[in-house]
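Why predict the complex rather than its parts? Because the way molecules touch one another can change local conformation, and only a joint prediction can capture that. The input here totals 296 residues.
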Amino acid sequence: MRGWHVLLWRGLLLALAISLGISPAHAQTRLNVVASFSILGDFVKNVGGDRVAVTTLVGPDGDVHVYTPTPSDVRKIADAKLLVINGFGLEGWLPRLLQAAGNRASIVTATSGITPLKAGSDADPHAWQSVANAERYIANIRDALISADPPDADHFRQNAVAYLAKLEALDAEVRQAVGKIPENRRRVISTHDAFGYFAARYGIQFIAPVGVSTEAEPSARDVAKIIAQVKAERIPAVFLERIGDPRLMQRISVETGARVGGTLYSDALTDEKGDSPTYIDMVRHNIRTLTSALAN
Ligand code: ZN
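Output of the joint prediction:
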């Protein structure tokens, strides 16, 4: 009779614990993480899984080069435990925002440990366009999440291992796809200079009338120079980007006969309804667009 009572009590206590949402491990409060732009937000989601709540400052289709922070960004940063940024000068608008938010979050620079390519005297910020670099981003984000939330370290490590395996397969996929493009056709024009790291890793030459930031407008002389180059070198295709002004590329296409090969995604993901809501989708979209325009 006594033993039966103990069992009943244990059962009741367990039911109570479940109804209160107390798990046998530790109480689940999700780590508040802010990422500066959509691509980093996707990386944090993949490593953090259900243990983090991710918000981004520059959302889908946003231009991180020319962003103007909003009052809601101040609130997001004030609530964050961890802030993930790209670095290499990409988030020029960030210092003032941090000051306005009275920031107390830890900041991790996702490009930490990557040797920057130079664009003039500045670092080219678009390091994520090499999948090998994206793997470094993931390692940095994993380590930062572990420091911010040590009890969930195993969870973050496991997620990182799984996602890194996907990135390694993706890197091989890109190399294989570029390998199928005839070598003399691996040259394209893109709107702004966002593909330097992609070019360096995979061997497609990108020429852009706009510099590494979308802030600067190309001069008439720059455009004339590019038009002459496209004609002289018989560059097969020009590409639009989701961010920035498409008219310049259309003009270069009309004046040179180079075809408009499609739209490349450089600095932002699409929203869930678009065709590139994740980094892996974005890289696949770009490689499909490039190969279909450049194949003979
Ligand atoms: Zn850019």
